[in-house]
Amino acid sequence: MRIAIIGTGYVGLTTGVALAYLGHQVVGLDVDARKVEMLRQGKIPIYEPWLAELTELARHNLTFTTTYAEAIPGADVVFIAVGTPSLPDGNPDLRYVRSAAQSVGEHLGEGYTVVVNKSTVPIGSGNWVETIVRDAFEACHGQKPSGRFAVASNPEFLREGSALFDTLYPDRVVVGTRESQALEVLYNLYKPILEQTFPAPRFLPRPEGLAAVPLITADQASAELIKYAANAFLALKISFVNEIAQLAERVGADVTQIAKGIGLDQRIGPRFLQAGLGWGGSCFGKDTAALVATAGEYGLAMPIVQAARDVNALQRHRVIDKLLGELKILKGRTIGLLGLAFKPNTDDLRDAPALDIAQRLVERGARVRVHDPVAMARAQTECSHLEVQFCDSVEALASGADALVLVTEWAQYRDLPWESLVSQMANPLVMDGRNHLDRERLTQAGYRYLGIGR
Ligand code: UDX
Q1: Are 190 and 299 in the same domain?
Q2: E strands, 267-385, where?
Q3: Which atom of ligand 1 is nearest to the CA of 346?
Q4: How many angstroms from the chain centroid is the CA of residue 381?
Q5: 223 in a domain, yes or no?
Q6: pLDDT value for 435
Q7: Residue 123's pLDDT is what?
Q8: Does one domain contain both 164 and 46?
Q9: Are 32 and 148 within one domain?
């Protein structure tokens, strides 16, 4: 099938590369000419494990362009995967979706095209996109686009850092449309995934026992709400365990044991129960804010979702409180942050707890040093306003420091030469914000170790 993907960010690029790997002809469109040029040269503008390797395998099915006239006419499916950043009131900024939908309408070809909303959009956006596409077509061609297109919602559930795994081996595929022709097109598009008939890439083996993936078909509003509800539920699972972590600390319990103890209950499940500095990233904060804002438009409060947000915001304060509790004075202290990305295996810094924590420490007069195995280059460009010292090595970070704070649980941080680092610090305090490090090893090496909820 011929596919156009508008927006080559995390979602658009990984979806496009995966579909090209499955044998579809994919054109990736982006208004950012620099990015398109990079992609044409086979360079990947983001850090995502295996994306470069899969792009290489799918190259013959993959092109990139900046022009709608090249991408849209003749496409069976057009994905709108542009950014929807939060506005100050919590609602998503839909200007990029609007502009994409308009250009799609202007360039619709002769055949039947399914326009898919992949961007996370407010409930009801399907109808809105449909109107924009129709109006743009009419304004351009002076006739109605009867039968030429349908709009469907197809939310993504991919996690950065394992985006390709999640695309090829999803827990489910959700398609929201009432049009049977659109459903058939999308069924055929996803057939290799639904039936798991594609050859698994060597570096992304198929999980054992995965024979088929469920397809959930729904009306558009339900599909759109599934996305918000899924992210809000995951976010509140994390906030719940973080709330329990606070009490665990007070009563002398260990939240990691509690998470194990409740997670083995199949009704609860073990995932997303890792206590720590809370969630960050491009989705949870934005989607929970949007859910609360949408509910508000209908006169509904969402106290549970709001509480999850509040608990998450508090987690970032707590690190500072804990450091204050230990060091008493932060002014003039040197604090090293291990990790900048909002989670490991990505260089994404959107709503990253590290940036928030760094800013608060700076405001309190601390000297802040930062390190990240992957996100440093991005941080130096995107966060030049932060008054922090970027360190190329963990040794430089630790040397003379009064405390190290583990913010992102990169695997390599667990295996650092902790025994030799201890003597380089002015004060051997480690605040493990993700309960990721080997507490016994660190204590034996002479550190004062602080975790979360234990
Ligand atoms: C999320 C959703 O998982 C995905 O389905 C959606 O479509 C996009 O948003 P992502 O933001 O990439 O994906 O990362 P995710 O793995 O969900 O982690 C989000 C945040 O929660 C991270 O900051 C992570 O550190 C934090 N987290 C996750 C916890 O603090 N504890 C956990 O147990 C799990």
Answers
A1: no
A2: 334-338, 367-371
A3: 12
A4: 20
A5: no
A6: 97
A7: 84
A8: yes
A9: yes
Residues with CB under 6 Å of ligand 1 are 156-160, 231, 234, 238, 272-274, 276, 278-281, 283-284, 342-343
Please indicate, yes or no, whether residues 132 and 237 belong to a single structural domain of this protein.
no
pLDDT for residue 262: 98
183 CA → ligand 1 middle, Å: 29
Residues 263 and 379 grouped into a single domain:
no
Residue 434 has what pLDDT? Answer: 98
Cα–Cα distance, 41 to 64 (Å, whole number): 10
Which parts of the chain sit beneath pLDDT 70? none
Q: Tell me, in angstroms, the distance from the centre of ligand 1 to residue 118's CA.
A: 18
- Contact by Cβ (8 Å): 372, 379: yes
Domain CATH for 233: 1.10.1040.10
Distance CA 431, CA 70 (A): 53
Atom of ligand 1 nearest to the CA of 272: 33
Question: Do residues 114 and 198 share a domain?
Answer: yes
Residue 244 falls within a domain, yes or no?
A: yes
- Check residue 125 and give its pLDDT: 85
Query: What is the three-class DSSP state of 310?
Result: helix
DSSP H helix total and E strand total for the chain? 18, 14
Residue nearest ligand 1's atom 17 by CA:
159
* Catalytic residue positions, numbered: 283
* Residue ranges making up the domain that contains 174: 2-218
